[in-house]
Automatic annotation (TrEMBL):
The name this protein goes by in its record: Aspartate-semialdehyde dehydrogenase
Domain of life: Bacteria
UniProt pathway annotation: Amino-acid biosynthesis; L-methionine biosynthesis via de novo pathway; L-homoserine from L-aspartate: step 2/3; Amino-acid biosynthesis; L-lysine biosynthesis via DAP pathway; (S)-tetrahydrodipicolinate from L-aspartate: step 2/4; Amino-acid biosynthesis; L-threonine biosynthesis; L-threonine from L-aspartate: step 2/5
Binding positions (phosphate): 99
Subunit note: Homodimer.
First-tier enzyme category under EC: oxidoreductase
Record bears the keyword Protease: no
Residues binding substrate, per UniProt: 157, 235
SMART domains: Semialdhyde_dh
Keyword Cell membrane: no
Database matches in InterPro entries: Asp_semialdehyde_DH, Asp_semialdehyde_DH_beta, NAD(P)-bd_dom_sf, Semialdehyde_DH_NAD-bd, Semialdhyde_DH_dimer_dom
Residues annotated to bind NADP(+): 11-14, 39-40, 160-161, 182, 315
Domain (Semialdehyde dehydrogenase NAD-binding): residue spans on this chain: 4-119
Amino acid sequence: MAFKVAVAGATGNVGREMLNILEERGFPVGEVVALASRRSVGTEVSFGDRTLKVKALDGYDFSDTDICLMSAGGAVSKEWSPKIGKQGCIVIDNSSAWRYDQDVPLIVPEVNPDAIDGYTRRNIIANPNCSTAQLLVALKPLHDAATIKRIVVATYQSVSGAGKEGMDELFTQTRAVFVADPVEAKKFTKRIAFNVIPHIDVFMDDGSTKEEWKMVAETKKMLDPKIKVTATCVRVPVFIGHSEAVNVEFEKPITADEARDILREAPGCLVIDKRENGGYITPLESAGEDATYISRIREDSTVDNGLNLWVVSDNLRKGAALNAIQIAELLVARGLIQPKQKAA
Ligand SMILES: NC(=O)c1ccc[n+]([C@@H]2O[C@H](COP(=O)([O-])OP(=O)(O)OC[C@H]3O[C@@H](n4cnc5c(N)ncnc54)[C@H](OP(=O)(O)O)[C@@H]3O)[C@@H](O)[C@H]2O)c1
Protein backbone atom coordinates (compact mmCIF):
# COMPACT_ATOMS: atom_id res chain seq x y z
CA MET A 1 0.00 0.00 0.00
CA ALA A 2 1.51 3.36 -1.02
CA PHE A 3 -0.05 6.80 -0.73
CA LYS A 4 0.36 9.99 -2.70
CA VAL A 5 1.15 12.68 -0.13
CA ALA A 6 1.33 16.43 -0.72
CA VAL A 7 3.17 18.69 1.73
CA ALA A 8 1.73 22.20 1.43
CA GLY A 9 4.16 24.72 2.96
CA ALA A 10 7.09 22.44 2.09
CA THR A 11 9.63 25.31 2.14
CA GLY A 12 8.70 26.32 5.71
CA ASN A 13 10.01 25.19 9.09
CA VAL A 14 7.22 22.68 9.65
CA GLY A 15 6.97 21.53 6.01
CA ARG A 16 10.68 20.65 5.85
CA GLU A 17 10.38 18.73 9.10
CA MET A 18 7.35 16.88 7.67
CA LEU A 19 9.44 15.73 4.72
CA ASN A 20 12.20 14.56 7.09
CA ILE A 21 9.78 12.67 9.33
CA LEU A 22 7.87 11.01 6.45
CA GLU A 23 11.20 9.58 5.34
CA GLU A 24 12.54 8.74 8.82
CA ARG A 25 9.41 6.85 9.88
CA GLY A 26 9.06 5.05 6.56
CA PHE A 27 5.52 6.28 5.99
CA PRO A 28 4.19 4.27 2.99
CA VAL A 29 4.50 6.90 0.26
CA GLY A 30 4.34 6.19 -3.45
CA GLU A 31 4.80 9.82 -4.42
CA VAL A 32 5.51 12.99 -2.43
CA VAL A 33 4.68 16.42 -3.84
CA ALA A 34 6.17 19.61 -2.37
CA LEU A 35 3.87 22.65 -2.57
CA ALA A 36 4.33 26.26 -1.48
CA SER A 37 3.48 29.76 -2.68
CA ARG A 38 4.12 30.90 -6.25
CA ARG A 39 7.27 32.63 -4.93
CA SER A 40 8.92 29.25 -4.38
CA VAL A 41 8.01 27.48 -7.62
CA GLY A 42 11.07 25.64 -8.96
CA THR A 43 13.10 25.86 -5.74
CA GLU A 44 14.22 22.55 -4.27
CA VAL A 45 13.60 20.75 -0.99
CA SER A 46 15.06 17.46 0.23
CA PHE A 47 13.14 14.27 0.79
CA GLY A 48 15.57 11.62 2.00
CA ASP A 49 18.29 11.42 -0.64
CA ARG A 50 15.93 12.81 -3.28
CA THR A 51 15.34 16.41 -4.27
CA LEU A 52 11.82 17.64 -4.95
CA LYS A 53 11.03 20.66 -7.11
CA VAL A 54 8.46 22.87 -5.43
CA LYS A 55 5.13 23.42 -7.19
CA ALA A 56 2.45 26.04 -6.50
CA LEU A 57 -0.39 25.11 -4.15
CA ASP A 58 -2.59 27.57 -6.02
CA GLY A 59 -4.29 25.60 -8.80
CA TYR A 60 -2.82 22.20 -7.86
CA ASP A 61 -5.19 19.30 -8.69
CA PHE A 62 -5.59 17.06 -5.60
CA SER A 63 -7.96 14.55 -7.19
CA ASP A 64 -5.34 11.75 -7.21
CA THR A 65 -3.68 12.77 -3.90
CA ASP A 66 -4.53 10.80 -0.75
CA ILE A 67 -3.23 13.04 2.04
CA CYS A 68 -2.32 16.73 2.16
CA LEU A 69 -0.11 17.70 5.10
CA MET A 70 -0.93 21.41 5.31
CA SER A 71 1.43 23.88 7.02
CA ALA A 72 1.03 27.09 5.06
CA GLY A 73 -0.68 29.28 7.68
CA GLY A 74 -4.28 29.91 8.71
CA ALA A 75 -5.43 32.11 5.83
CA VAL A 76 -4.15 29.66 3.19
CA SER A 77 -5.73 26.74 5.04
CA LYS A 78 -9.09 28.52 5.40
CA GLU A 79 -9.19 28.99 1.64
CA TRP A 80 -7.66 25.72 0.45
CA SER A 81 -8.43 22.94 2.95
CA PRO A 82 -12.18 22.70 2.13
CA LYS A 83 -11.45 22.68 -1.63
CA ILE A 84 -8.82 19.96 -1.17
CA GLY A 85 -11.14 17.95 1.09
CA LYS A 86 -13.88 18.12 -1.52
CA GLN A 87 -11.48 16.54 -4.03
CA GLY A 88 -11.38 13.46 -1.76
CA CYS A 89 -7.95 14.20 -0.30
CA ILE A 90 -7.70 14.16 3.51
CA VAL A 91 -6.16 17.36 4.87
CA ILE A 92 -4.14 17.23 8.09
CA ASP A 93 -3.81 20.90 8.98
CA ASN A 94 -1.26 22.56 11.25
CA SER A 95 -2.79 26.01 11.45
CA SER A 96 -5.43 27.20 13.92
CA ALA A 97 -7.99 27.67 11.09
CA TRP A 98 -10.05 24.51 11.79
CA ARG A 99 -9.16 23.46 15.34
CA TYR A 100 -12.33 24.79 16.96
CA ASP A 101 -14.76 23.67 14.22
CA GLN A 102 -17.15 21.04 15.62
CA ASP A 103 -16.95 19.12 12.34
CA VAL A 104 -13.16 18.86 12.47
CA PRO A 105 -11.45 16.45 14.86
CA LEU A 106 -8.49 17.90 16.78
CA ILE A 107 -6.11 15.05 17.43
CA VAL A 108 -3.05 14.11 19.43
CA PRO A 109 -2.77 10.34 18.84
CA GLU A 110 -1.54 9.65 22.40
CA VAL A 111 -4.47 11.61 23.84
CA ASN A 112 -7.73 11.23 21.84
CA PRO A 113 -7.19 8.87 18.88
CA ASP A 114 -10.84 7.77 18.80
CA ALA A 115 -12.01 11.28 17.89
CA ILE A 116 -10.49 10.73 14.42
CA ASP A 117 -13.68 9.04 13.19
CA GLY A 118 -15.32 12.47 12.79
CA TYR A 119 -12.94 13.49 9.98
CA THR A 120 -15.30 12.41 7.18
CA ARG A 121 -17.59 15.42 7.73
CA ARG A 122 -15.10 17.79 6.11
CA ASN A 123 -12.14 15.56 5.21
CA ILE A 124 -10.05 17.82 7.46
CA ILE A 125 -8.22 16.83 10.66
CA ALA A 126 -6.60 19.52 12.81
CA ASN A 127 -3.30 19.41 14.62
CA PRO A 128 -3.24 21.36 17.90
CA ASN A 129 -1.08 24.29 18.83
CA CYS A 130 2.49 23.22 19.59
CA SER A 131 2.26 24.17 23.29
CA THR A 132 -0.98 22.24 23.79
CA ALA A 133 0.30 19.09 22.06
CA GLN A 134 3.24 18.55 24.41
CA LEU A 135 1.23 19.61 27.48
CA LEU A 136 -1.47 17.02 26.82
CA VAL A 137 0.95 14.19 25.99
CA ALA A 138 2.34 14.71 29.52
CA LEU A 139 -0.98 15.30 31.28
CA LYS A 140 -3.32 12.71 29.70
CA PRO A 141 -1.86 9.74 31.67
CA LEU A 142 -2.00 11.76 34.90
CA HIS A 143 -5.62 12.78 34.17
CA ASP A 144 -6.51 9.11 33.68
CA ALA A 145 -4.94 8.29 37.05
CA ALA A 146 -6.14 11.14 39.27
CA THR A 147 -8.52 13.45 37.28
CA ILE A 148 -7.18 16.95 36.67
CA LYS A 149 -9.22 19.85 38.10
CA ARG A 150 -7.06 22.83 37.19
CA ILE A 151 -3.89 23.57 35.19
CA VAL A 152 -1.71 26.68 35.58
CA VAL A 153 0.91 26.80 32.83
CA ALA A 154 3.63 29.26 31.82
CA THR A 155 5.29 28.60 28.47
CA TYR A 156 8.80 29.42 27.28
CA GLN A 157 8.34 29.21 23.50
CA SER A 158 11.15 29.12 20.96
CA VAL A 159 11.33 31.49 17.98
CA SER A 160 10.86 28.65 15.46
CA GLY A 161 7.23 28.62 16.60
CA ALA A 162 6.93 31.88 14.67
CA GLY A 163 8.18 30.30 11.41
CA LYS A 164 11.42 30.75 9.55
CA GLU A 165 11.16 34.57 9.87
CA GLY A 166 11.22 34.18 13.65
CA MET A 167 14.45 32.16 13.53
CA ASP A 168 16.03 34.65 11.14
CA GLU A 169 15.13 37.52 13.47
CA LEU A 170 16.79 35.93 16.52
CA PHE A 171 19.92 35.19 14.46
CA THR A 172 20.12 38.67 12.89
CA GLN A 173 19.47 40.52 16.14
CA THR A 174 22.00 38.43 18.08
CA ARG A 175 24.64 39.14 15.45
CA ALA A 176 23.73 42.85 15.44
CA VAL A 177 24.14 43.05 19.23
CA PHE A 178 27.62 41.51 19.00
CA VAL A 179 28.88 43.80 16.22
CA ALA A 180 27.10 46.86 17.71
CA ASP A 181 24.81 47.34 14.70
CA PRO A 182 21.31 48.79 15.20
CA VAL A 183 18.83 46.07 16.27
CA GLU A 184 15.57 45.99 14.32
CA ALA A 185 12.39 44.19 15.51
CA LYS A 186 10.14 43.16 12.59
CA LYS A 187 8.60 39.75 13.31
CA PHE A 188 8.38 40.15 17.09
CA THR A 189 6.92 43.17 18.92
CA LYS A 190 10.13 43.83 20.88
CA ARG A 191 13.76 42.73 20.64
CA ILE A 192 13.95 38.95 21.18
CA ALA A 193 17.75 38.60 21.32
CA PHE A 194 18.80 38.48 25.01
CA ASN A 195 15.21 39.20 26.02
CA VAL A 196 11.83 37.49 26.66
CA ILE A 197 8.46 38.72 25.38
CA PRO A 198 5.19 37.92 27.25
CA HIS A 199 3.06 38.19 24.14
CA ILE A 200 2.29 35.57 21.44
CA ASP A 201 -0.49 36.10 18.86
CA VAL A 202 -3.11 38.87 19.22
CA PHE A 203 -4.69 40.23 22.41
CA MET A 204 -8.20 39.07 23.38
CA ASP A 205 -10.85 41.24 25.10
CA ASP A 206 -10.10 39.77 28.55
CA GLY A 207 -6.40 40.72 28.36
CA SER A 208 -5.16 37.22 27.56
CA THR A 209 -3.52 36.49 24.21
CA LYS A 210 -4.88 34.21 21.48
CA GLU A 211 -2.00 31.77 22.13
CA GLU A 212 -3.12 31.50 25.77
CA TRP A 213 -6.76 31.12 24.73
CA LYS A 214 -5.77 28.31 22.33
CA MET A 215 -4.24 26.30 25.20
CA VAL A 216 -7.48 26.61 27.15
CA ALA A 217 -9.86 25.80 24.26
CA GLU A 218 -7.75 22.92 22.88
CA THR A 219 -7.26 21.26 26.30
CA LYS A 220 -11.03 21.33 26.81
CA LYS A 221 -11.72 19.95 23.30
CA MET A 222 -9.17 17.13 23.48
CA LEU A 223 -8.81 16.15 27.14
CA ASP A 224 -11.86 17.20 29.18
CA PRO A 225 -14.19 20.23 29.00
CA LYS A 226 -14.40 20.30 32.82
CA ILE A 227 -10.70 21.10 33.33
CA LYS A 228 -9.93 24.72 34.24
CA VAL A 229 -6.84 26.06 32.46
CA THR A 230 -4.98 29.34 32.81
CA ALA A 231 -1.90 30.05 30.68
CA THR A 232 0.80 32.68 30.23
CA CYS A 233 2.65 32.30 26.93
CA VAL A 234 6.13 33.79 26.58
CA ARG A 235 8.54 33.94 23.63
CA VAL A 236 12.17 33.24 24.59
CA PRO A 237 15.45 33.49 22.61
CA VAL A 238 15.74 29.75 21.93
CA PHE A 239 15.77 28.47 18.33
CA ILE A 240 13.94 25.15 18.76
CA GLY A 241 12.09 23.54 21.68
CA HIS A 242 9.22 24.82 23.80
CA SER A 243 9.35 24.50 27.60
CA GLU A 244 6.47 24.70 30.06
CA ALA A 245 6.30 25.16 33.82
CA VAL A 246 3.09 23.36 34.74
CA ASN A 247 1.15 23.34 38.03
CA VAL A 248 -1.66 20.79 38.18
CA GLU A 249 -4.39 20.26 40.79
CA PHE A 250 -6.06 16.84 40.84
CA GLU A 251 -9.35 15.51 42.25
CA LYS A 252 -7.63 12.48 43.76
CA PRO A 253 -4.33 12.18 45.63
CA ILE A 254 -1.23 11.49 43.50
CA THR A 255 2.37 11.64 44.69
CA ALA A 256 5.39 12.75 42.68
CA ASP A 257 6.70 9.16 42.75
CA GLU A 258 3.40 7.81 41.39
CA ALA A 259 3.35 10.46 38.65
CA ARG A 260 6.94 9.62 37.69
CA ASP A 261 6.10 5.90 37.45
CA ILE A 262 3.00 6.60 35.34
CA LEU A 263 4.86 8.92 32.96
CA ARG A 264 7.75 6.44 32.56
CA GLU A 265 5.26 4.02 30.98
CA ALA A 266 3.24 6.61 29.02
CA PRO A 267 3.35 6.76 25.19
CA GLY A 268 5.41 9.65 23.82
CA CYS A 269 6.80 10.59 27.26
CA LEU A 270 10.37 10.40 28.52
CA VAL A 271 11.08 11.18 32.17
CA ILE A 272 14.44 12.78 32.96
CA ASP A 273 14.18 13.71 36.58
CA LYS A 274 17.23 13.43 38.79
CA ARG A 275 17.44 15.87 41.66
CA GLU A 276 21.04 16.85 40.88
CA ASN A 277 22.92 19.34 38.68
CA GLY A 278 21.84 18.79 35.07
CA GLY A 279 19.33 16.06 35.99
CA TYR A 280 16.57 17.65 33.88
CA ILE A 281 15.95 18.45 30.23
CA THR A 282 16.42 21.79 28.47
CA PRO A 283 14.99 22.77 25.06
CA LEU A 284 18.41 22.53 23.39
CA GLU A 285 18.49 18.79 24.06
CA SER A 286 14.92 18.28 22.84
CA ALA A 287 15.61 19.65 19.35
CA GLY A 288 15.41 16.93 16.71
CA GLU A 289 13.84 14.45 19.16
CA ASP A 290 10.34 12.96 19.14
CA ALA A 291 9.68 12.64 22.87
CA THR A 292 7.87 14.93 25.24
CA TYR A 293 10.32 15.20 28.13
CA ILE A 294 9.20 15.60 31.72
CA SER A 295 11.48 16.80 34.52
CA ARG A 296 11.27 18.48 37.94
CA ILE A 297 8.23 16.42 39.04
CA ARG A 298 7.41 17.47 42.59
CA GLU A 299 4.48 17.88 44.95
CA ASP A 300 2.94 21.32 45.46
CA SER A 301 2.23 21.58 49.18
CA THR A 302 0.20 24.80 48.77
CA VAL A 303 -2.87 22.96 47.39
CA ASP A 304 -4.57 19.57 47.91
CA ASN A 305 -3.34 16.97 45.38
CA GLY A 306 -1.02 19.36 43.52
CA LEU A 307 2.00 18.60 41.34
CA ASN A 308 4.56 20.74 39.52
CA LEU A 309 6.22 19.57 36.29
CA TRP A 310 8.65 20.88 33.67
CA VAL A 311 7.62 19.75 30.16
CA VAL A 312 9.85 20.20 27.09
CA SER A 313 9.50 19.12 23.46
CA ASP A 314 10.65 20.00 19.93
CA ASN A 315 7.85 22.30 18.75
CA LEU A 316 8.51 21.57 15.08
CA ARG A 317 8.21 17.82 15.67
CA LYS A 318 5.67 16.79 18.36
CA GLY A 319 4.23 20.31 18.22
CA ALA A 320 3.60 20.12 14.49
CA ALA A 321 5.17 17.80 11.89
CA LEU A 322 5.51 14.59 13.92
CA ASN A 323 1.99 14.85 15.31
CA ALA A 324 0.60 15.38 11.78
CA ILE A 325 2.37 12.27 10.49
CA GLN A 326 1.26 10.24 13.51
CA ILE A 327 -2.31 11.25 12.56
CA ALA A 328 -1.67 9.98 9.02
CA GLU A 329 -0.30 6.73 10.51
CA LEU A 330 -3.46 6.43 12.63
CA LEU A 331 -5.63 6.75 9.50
CA VAL A 332 -3.65 3.93 7.88
CA ALA A 333 -3.55 1.73 11.01
CA ARG A 334 -7.33 1.97 11.45
CA GLY A 335 -8.02 1.28 7.77
CA LEU A 336 -9.68 4.68 7.34
CA ILE A 337 -7.79 5.46 4.13
CA GLN A 338 -7.00 3.49 0.97
CA PRO A 339 -4.65 4.68 -1.79
CA LYS A 340 -6.54 6.17 -4.75
CA GLN A 341 -3.97 4.94 -7.20
CA LYS A 342 -3.41 1.19 -7.48
CA ALA A 343 0.26 0.14 -7.34
CA ALA A 344 1.65 -0.60 -10.82
N1 LIG B 1 6.46 26.41 13.90
C1 LIG B 1 5.74 25.76 14.81
O1 LIG B 1 6.21 25.40 15.90
C2 LIG B 1 4.34 25.41 14.51
C3 LIG B 1 3.69 24.56 15.37
C4 LIG B 1 2.38 24.23 15.13
C5 LIG B 1 1.76 24.77 14.04
N2 LIG B 1 2.42 25.60 13.20
C6 LIG B 1 1.68 26.13 12.05
O2 LIG B 1 2.20 25.58 10.85
C7 LIG B 1 2.08 26.53 9.79
C8 LIG B 1 3.44 26.77 9.15
O3 LIG B 1 4.36 27.21 10.12
P1 LIG B 1 5.92 27.34 9.80
O4 LIG B 1 6.54 27.55 11.12
O5 LIG B 1 6.41 26.23 8.95
O6 LIG B 1 5.95 28.72 8.93
P2 LIG B 1 7.04 29.20 7.88
O7 LIG B 1 8.39 28.67 8.19
O8 LIG B 1 6.87 30.69 7.82
O9 LIG B 1 6.56 28.56 6.47
C9 LIG B 1 5.34 28.92 5.86
C10 LIG B 1 5.11 28.05 4.65
O10 LIG B 1 3.84 28.39 4.08
C11 LIG B 1 4.02 28.66 2.69
N3 LIG B 1 3.06 29.63 2.21
C12 LIG B 1 2.89 30.91 2.60
N4 LIG B 1 1.94 31.52 1.88
C13 LIG B 1 1.48 30.60 0.99
C14 LIG B 1 0.49 30.61 -0.03
N5 LIG B 1 -0.22 31.70 -0.30
N6 LIG B 1 0.30 29.48 -0.75
C15 LIG B 1 1.02 28.37 -0.50
N7 LIG B 1 1.96 28.29 0.46
C16 LIG B 1 2.19 29.40 1.20
C17 LIG B 1 5.42 29.18 2.60
O11 LIG B 1 5.87 29.09 1.26
P3 LIG B 1 6.92 30.17 0.65
O12 LIG B 1 8.26 29.73 1.13
O13 LIG B 1 6.70 29.99 -0.80
O14 LIG B 1 6.51 31.52 1.17
C18 LIG B 1 6.14 28.23 3.55
O15 LIG B 1 6.37 26.99 2.91
C19 LIG B 1 1.46 27.77 10.43
O16 LIG B 1 0.06 27.70 10.25
C20 LIG B 1 1.80 27.63 11.89
O17 LIG B 1 0.90 28.30 12.72
C21 LIG B 1 3.70 25.93 13.40
